Amino acid sequence: MFFRNRWPSQTANRVFSFCDRLFSANLIARIGVASAIVFCTVAVDLRADDGVPDTAETQQQASTGRPDIVVFLSDDHTVTDSSVYGSTEIQTPNMQRLADVGMTFDRAYVASPSCAPSRAALLTGISPARNGAERNHARPAADLKKLPAYLQELGYEVAAFGKVGHYRQTPEYGFDVAKFFNYHEDQCVDEAVKWLRARQSDKPLCLFVGTNWPHVPWPEGETFLIDDVRVPPHHVNTKETREARQRYLQAVQTMDDELGAVYDATMDALGTETLFIHTSDHGAQWPFAKWNLYEEGIRTPLIVSWPGKIQGGVRTDAMVSWVDLLPTMVAAAGGDPDAAAPVKLDGRSIMPVLSGQADTHRDVILTTHSGDGNMNVYPARAVTGKRYKYIRNLYPQFQFGTHIDKKPADTGYWPSWEAKAGDDTDAANVVRRYQQRAAEELYDLQEDPLELLNLARDPEHHSQLARLSTRLDQWMTDQGDQPDSVGLAKLLPPSGQPPNVIMVFIDDMGWADLSCFGGIEGQTPNIDRLASEGIRLTNFYVNSPICSPSRTALTTGHYPARHRITSYLASRELNAERGVADWLDEEAVTLPRLLQQAGYACGHFGKWHMGGQRDVGDAPMISKYGFVRSLTNFEGLGPRVLPLKDAYDGKPPKPHALGSDKLGKGPIMWEDRSVITSRFVAETLDFVREVSQGDETPPFYVNVWPDDVHSPYFPPAGRRGDQEKRTLYLSVLKTMDEQLGVLFDRVRNDPKLAKNTLIFVASDNGHEPGAGAGGPLRGFKGKLYEGGIRSPLIVWGPGMIRPEAAGTVNEATIASAIDLVPSILQATGVSAPESYQPDGEDLLSALLGYNHAQRNTPLMWRRPPDHPGNRQQPYPDLAIRDKNWKLLCNIDGSAVELYDLANDIGETKNMADKRPQITQRLKDQLLQWNESLPADGVVTVPRGQQEKRFGKRRWK
Hints:
The protein has 956 residues and is an alpha/beta fold. It has four domains: 1-64, no CATH class; 65-352, Alkaline Phosphatase, subunit A (3-Layer(aba) Sandwich); 500-857, Alkaline Phosphatase, subunit A; 858-956, Arylsulfatase, C-terminal domain (2-Layer Sandwich). The protein contains 31 helices and 28 strands. The strands form five sheets. Strands 13, 14, 15, 16, 20, 21, 22, 23 and 24 form a nine-stranded mixed sheet that branches. α9 packs parallel to α10 and α19 crosses α24. The model is unreliable at 1-63 (pLDDT under 50).
C-alpha cells in the first residue's frame, strides 16, 4: 500500500497492486527496502511503455476526482442478522471490515420490500408509484432515465454482474455490460472479479455486483451448529424453524464471504480511493420481513466507504432511502443529479451526511408494498419517523400470505408453525398476527423495536396516528399513488354471522340476452337493477356447453368429466351409449353438503338434472346431496312441480313430464309452465322465512334454478305475440325476470338480509339457435366456441362487495363455475376436507370487487359426446383458455384453432400457424388434461358414428 496514493491514475494503480503483491511475497526480505522501491518504480515505467498510458481522459479523471464506484448488493438480507448490526449469532467479518473504513447507516430503508420495485427505485431514484414498478416482477417505465445513463453521460463505463435489476430485467436498465443475472446462477462474483482484474479501460468504472445470497433456497452447511441457533422471540420455535435458520445463516455467511472477495478485488484493481457501497434490497423470507413494511422488511444494511472523503468507523442514524442512492452516486461522480434528471427525482444526495457536513437527511421514510402476483396480494403503505411508524393496510379484509405459506418447501418451516398453533396459544397468536392485519398499525420503535404492540387504537397516541396518517395521505397524493389490488387474494373468513348465498342459475340464456349485458330486444329490469347495484363479470364461463355437466361443475367445483357427466342426463340406454353416468355420485363432495355440515340450511328450488330423469327412478334424492328442502321439475326426484303446456285459446293443458310422473319418489304438483318460476320463488321465500325465525338462525344457501328459457317456450297467453321462436323466448325471459324480481326485492328490502346475503346470477350454458342471443360471440349451446360456454355473471351483496365496485364491470378476471365453489367456501368460512381437491380456484376477492384476480391455471373443456357437429361443420372436441389465448382441437390433436380473444372475441381469425409456440404449448397441455379424465363417447365412439348415433338429440 506504500505507493498507492502517489500516482492517482488507474494505470498506476494496477502497477501498485502488482507491487503490493510482490511486497506481500516477502520481496523486502529478499532484496531490501531500497531495491524494492527501485524495482517498483521501474515497473511503473515499463507498464506505461507497454501500451497502458496515462491518457488525457485518465488524467482528467484524476484531476476532477471522478471515483471508481463499486456497489455490492445482497439479496433478502435482514439487517439485524449481521454482527455489524448487533447480531451475536453470526459474525460478518467482511461487512465489519467495510464498516471499519466507512460509514454505517443505522436507519437506511428500501422503497419497497420486494425485489423488482426495490431495485427499480434504486436504479431510477424514483418511488414505485411514479416509476411504474409497484409490484414484484414489474418494470419501471421504459422511457425513464436510469442510473447507467446518468453515469455514462459523465464518462463512466457501467457494468452489472448478477442480480442488479430483477434478474432478466437487468439488461433493460442500459448497462454497458450485464451478465449472469439469472436466478441463482451463483457465479456472478467469480465472474465479476475475473472481469475486473482483466479490465483495461481507462474510463472511470461503476460496477454493480448482485449476489443471490441469502435469497432462498438456503444452502446446507456445517458452519452453524443447530444448538447454537437462536429463534427470534416473535417467531415460532420448532425444530423446522431452527433448521431453516441454520441454513439461512449459512446463506448470510456465504454472502459475507462474497462481499469480501469483491472488496479485495476492488482494492487490487481500482485502489483504495474507490467509492464502495454495500446494501441489500430488503429483508429475508421470514414471516415479518420480506413482503412486509415492518422494520425487518424495509430497514436495510448500508455501509459506504470512500477513503479520503468519508471518515472510517463512523455510524450515523440519519434516515436515508434507497431512492437517495442514485443522486448520491451521480453527485460523487461530479454530476448534478437534479439538473441531469428529465423528471423530478424522489431521491436526494446523501453526500452531506457522508462528508460529515450533516447529521440528518430525512425526517420520515415513506415506503410502499403492492404485492407479488398471486403469491402475495396485500397492498400497504407506511411512513416511518424517528420514533413512530404508521402502516396502512389497504385491504385488511385480505388474509396475508406469501411464498412462505404458499410455497413452504422453499424454506421448510411454515407447516410446523401451523401445526404448533393447533395446541399452543403463543404459536397461534404468531400465526394469527401473520395472517390477519389491522387496517392501521402504529408502533413506538424506541420502546417496541419488534413492532408487537399496535398503538393505533390507543387514545394517548391519537395525535401521532393523525400526524403520520396525514403525512401519508399527502405523499400518496403527490405521488399519484392510487393503489389497487392485483392478484388472487384470499379474503379472511367472516368474523360474524356467515353470509347467506342465493345461486340463480338460469337455463339456456344467451350471453347477450340481458339488457345489462348488451341485449337490446329483451326486457330484464329486475336483473338489470341487481347488476347496477352489484358487479358484472364479462369473462365468466360455465364448464360445459350443456346443462347436466354445467350443473355438476357448479355443484362440485370439479370439471364434470371427473364425474362421468359430459352431456345432459337422459335414459339409461342413451347414457350408456354416450359413456355418461346416470346420476351424480352420492358420495361426491358437493358445495351444499359442505355448507350443511358447517351449519348452513340448504335448499334447492328449480331444475336439477343431475339424476332422476326419464326412466332413471333409482337415482339419489336431491336431499342426499346436502339439501334439507327441495322442489324440482321433471329432471330430479323428490317433491316436484311438473309443467302443463298449451293451455290457451281454449285448448286443454298438456302434461310435459318426460316420464317423471311415473317415477314416484316424491309428491307431484302440476302448474302452467309460465308460472313455474313463480312457484320456485315462492318456495324459496317460504324456506328463507322458515330458517330465519327465532333468535339464533342459521345462514342459508339456496339454489334457484329456473328453466323457463329452455325450449319449449310457454309464456303467458297474453305474451305469445306472433308465436315465432324468438318472440316466445323474449316473452319468457321477461316473465322470468318479473318472477325473480319478487325474490330480489324481498332480500333487498330486508336490512338484515341485504347486509349479509350474496346473490349470484348466471346461465348454465349458451343460447339455443333462433331463440337467445350471444351478441358478438361465435357459437351457441352445445359448442365449445364462446357462445356455448361464456355466461353472464352478476354478483350482488351490498354488505359484502367493495362499495366502490357497486355498478362496475370486471372485464379482466377470467373465471368459471368451478371457481364459485372454493370462492363461496372462502366467503362462508367453511373448510373442505383435505382429500377434496377442486379444479376451481378461490376468486372471491375479484367476485367482490377488490381486484381483478386471475386463476393460476387455464380453463379446459371437453364437448358433449352427442355434439360432434357434421361433416360440413364439425365441432372441436376440446378447448383451453389461458389468459387471452383460446385453443380448440380434436382429441387426436387435429383441427387446431387458436384465437386471441382480447382482440378477436368472435373467434374469426385462426392464429395457430402464426403462433406455433403458443399453439404447441396449449395443445400439449389440453391433450394431457383430456387423457387424465374418464373416457366418454367423444373418446370411445368414432367421430363419424357420433353424428349418426347422437346428433339428432341436440336440445334436451
